[in-house]
Amino acid sequence: MTKQNTQHPRIGARLRVAWPDAWSVGAGLIAVLVVAPVLSVMWLAFHPVENIWPHLMATVLPRYLGNTLFLMGGVGVLTACVGTGAAWLVAMYRFPGSRWLDYALLFPLAIPGYVGAYALVDFFDYSGVVQTALRAGFGWETARDYWFPAVRTRGMAAIVLSAALYPYVYLLARAAFREQSNGTYEVARALGTGPLALFWRVGLPLARPAIAMGVALALMETVADFGTVDHFGVQTLTTGIFSVWLSGGNAGGAAQIALVILAIVVFLLGLERLSRRNARFHQMSRAARPLEPHRLRGAGAWAATIACLIPFGIGFVLPVAVMLGHALKKPEAWVSKGLLQALGNTVVVGGIAAVVTVAGALFLVYGVRMAKRGFPRLVLPVTSVGYAAPGTVLAVGLLIPLAALDHRIADAILALTGFDPGLLLTGTAAALVLAYFVRFFGIAQGAVDSAFGRVSPSLPLAARSLGRGAGGTLRDVYLPLMRGSVATALLVVFVDCVKELPATLLLRPFNYNTLATRVYEQASLERLGDAAPAALLVMAVGLAAVWVMAHTNRA
């Protein structure tokens, strides 16, 4: 009898341990929600209603893949050279305008690639400012009287994308250069190393992991881009999804192309991880002196200024000037039909998505820290997969299963009540909110996780010892200390929702426009005057996020 009593509590303890805690369940549900669209794409690709993969392989897929790889190569080289070069100049030297260029070189992040494409084509096309001025100045009458490089080419598309994406490399490389010790460079100079060798032999190897990460981010955005390549008439894997799905009506074929995009993204992530697998970079002393920029003089100083002004001019000044010029020429476009509605839709959907995404990230990250089981720690890295998946891929993975679920829900409600509610998910903006949640959850998670790490562990321990529960500790200790980081995460996610084009085009309800889709529709009709107000609003929202980012990463 005594033996049975001593064993009974142990059995009960085992039973209690077997039950998952609430944090583990919540983390698992969030992980499933984020990963489900990717798994859906894989299922659709391997189980199509009509398998057109052999036809795609024999006809359009080589062209889609070739153009995509060409753009990736061009953007990779240009962003690496421009972003790293600008970061080195700003971090290592002082020259005319270097202090404001330190921040201004981030401004192209506020310009969506498709807006830059519309501006560049409008500026350099046959009817644009440049060619019109050339004809007027030299007396030329037609295009046969002179030669001008073609504008709508994949090479120009690579330049536009690079101008919009080089800040990813610039931001990470600048931080990497400034984190290095000034003593390292002093020793190299004492050994006779010149300025160019100092960059190649010291600065570049130490900053290589950061540069590789920035280039990987730029390449993933290149693969995901739709608006830019569509305007330049370049057929890529992303435009292929639109063609096969919307024009050809074959969802399985679109999923198969989406799977190719996913394979490229996974390859990029793996390559980036492999590139820094055996690399270890450590700060040798906490007392290491920060970099002391050298002042350039004469022609070298002005050459550095011009070198930094070129990407800033192409990536920011040109799009803003062109759109502002069109907006001033056609002021009535600011009160045109549909603009206010598109603005309202953008604010509502983007705001809801930002709040839901950051709240989900808060729950997941805090849950990982509080969970008594190891399962949430295993799913935490999985939840960042959404950011790596382009919007078109997520749209394919979301729309088809959501549409099937939508019809089942509507049929069930109709059978029970006799009332037809219509499509509750795909017929409203709910699908957009879900797509934004999955797409940008990784951004919110990274920002929130970093904020939690900056809170001293003694503070929540003290709160728990005073009787606060897990929720009370989060509310009364963590959130007040993390207000700035949470607000920044909300802003960054909101801005990314505002700029997102491909997922919005595919998942929006009928006759439902956001600022991004309005810009795309009007520009596709060559009506930049009507597109300019919406484009300027998108850029203004993006500038707010860039301003916050610049001050947050101030060194």
Q: Would you write up a description of this structure?
A:
- The protein is mainly alpha-helical and 555 residues long.
- It has two domains: 22-51 and 339-512, MetI-like (MetI-like fold, Orthogonal Bundle); 61-328, MetI-like fold.
- It has 25 helices and two strands.
- The chain has helices at residues 2-18, 22-46, 53-58, 61-92, 98-104, 113-124, 129-138, 154-178, 182-190, 195-224, 227-232, 237-247, 251-275, 299-329, 339-370, 375-379, 385-388, 391-417, 430-453, 458-465, 470-481, 483-499, 502-507, 515-524, 528-552, and strands at residues 93-94, 294-295.
- The protein has a two-stranded parallel ribbon.
- The longest helix has 32 residues, at 61-92.
- The relative contact order is 0.13.
- Residues 1-7 and 11-18 have low confidence and may be disordered.
Question: Quick one: CATH class of the largest domain?
Answer: Mainly Alpha
Q: Examine the coordinates and then state which fold CATH places here, giving the name of the CATH topology of the largest domain.
A: MetI-like fold
Count structural domains: 2
Question: Approximately how much beta-strand content do the residues carry?
Answer: under 5%
Q: Please tell me how large the radius of gyration is.
A: 26 Å
- End-to-end separation: 71 Å
How would you summarize this macromolecular structure in one to three sentences?
By secondary structure, this protein is an all-alpha fold. The chain has helices spanning 2-18, 22-46, 53-58, 61-92, 98-104, 113-124, 129-138, 154-178, 182-190, 195-224, 227-232, 237-247, 251-275, 299-329, 339-370, 375-379, 385-388, 391-417, 430-453, 458-465, 470-481, 483-499, 502-507, 515-524, 528-552, and strands at residues 93-94, 294-295.
